[in-house]
Amino acid sequence: MDSRLVNLVVDAADPAGLARWWREALGWRAGYADDHESDVVPPEGEPGLDLVFVPVCDPKLVPNRIHLDLDSSSPAEQRETVAFLLDLGATRADVGQGEVPWVVLADPEGNEFCVLDPRPEYEGTGAIAAVVHQARDPWAMAGFWGPVSGWRTARSGAGVVALRDGSTGPFLEFVASSTPHTVKNRWHPDVRATRSGRGRERVITEALAAGARPADVGQGAGVPWTVLADPEGNEFCVLSGAVD
Fold first, then answer.
1. Taking every pair of C-alpha atoms in the chain, what is the biggest distance, in angstroms?
2. In this predicted model, what pLDDT tens digit does every residue of 175-193 receive, in sequence order?
3. What pLDDT, on a 0 to 100 scale, did the predictor assign at position 124?
4. Residues 236 and 191 sit within 8 Å (Cβ to Cβ)
5. What percent of the chain has pLDDT over 70?
6. Bridge partners of 86?
7. CA-to-CA distance for 27 and 25, rounded, in angstroms?
8. CB-based contacts of 197: which residues, under 8 Å, 6+ apart?
């Protein structure tokens, strides 16, 4: 589809404050910032997707369908990471996980995320092991998002399909869930056309042909991006410009 996944956008009541929190939580650095967004980017040389925090007035109503999984290299590091994040202002969260080896937390605005137990498959991901999407049909969603993101299928198993951009960086995981999309997601991906491709309009046309649909999230006219929804209703933006 000649497009690439470039950002993960986060709705926030206080974008600058939440960006500062995630910058400290991940050990990342500040990126671009203005009155309309605050970016957090990986350290130089470390793989990862930029996080872009933008202002919204809508309150958080339901558990997010998209969340981050943070990597741990050992049980001791997992415990230390959880303790550090709780001291930083995270809270423990219950999303019905029961007794599991990972720890579910929420950031200061209530966005759920997980601190994983050590798993060898996440070596080389950087601080973020995976961007996790709930999906009614993980295989169909991976089939849609592979061409849109420019990432390839890395592994699949019982109820989960994972994409990855090469052999380093985070995974994009689609995990089986019976919960439908009901409200606008507070976290959404941005994609951009590649320089060697046929442009943004072609990406939009091909995404619509693959099962996307136009979406209205109040963006108004004249914005330099196009808002679409994937086949399960999850919003994403096709940005202007191009990327290598």
1. 51
2. 999 999 999 999 999 999 9
3. 86
4. yes
5. 100
6. none
7. 6
8. 1, 2, 3, 203, 242
**∠ Cα 111 116 119 (to 5°):** 150
Point out which residues pair with 152 in neighbouring strands. Answer: 164
- Helices 75-88 & 15-26 angle (0-180, nearest 10): 150
Please tell me whether residue 9 adopts helix, strand or coil conformation.
strand
Residues 106, 215: Cα–Cα separation, whole Å: 28
pLDDT in tens, 93-151: 999 888 999 999 999 999 999 999 999 999 889 999 999 999 999 999 999 999 999 99
The string of DSSP codes covering 68-136 is EEE--SSHHHHHHHHHHHHHHT-EE--SS--S-SSEEEE-TT--EEEEPPP-GGGTTS-SEEEEEEEES
What pTM value is reported for the model? 0.95
φ, ψ (nearest 5 deg) of residue 98: 65, -150
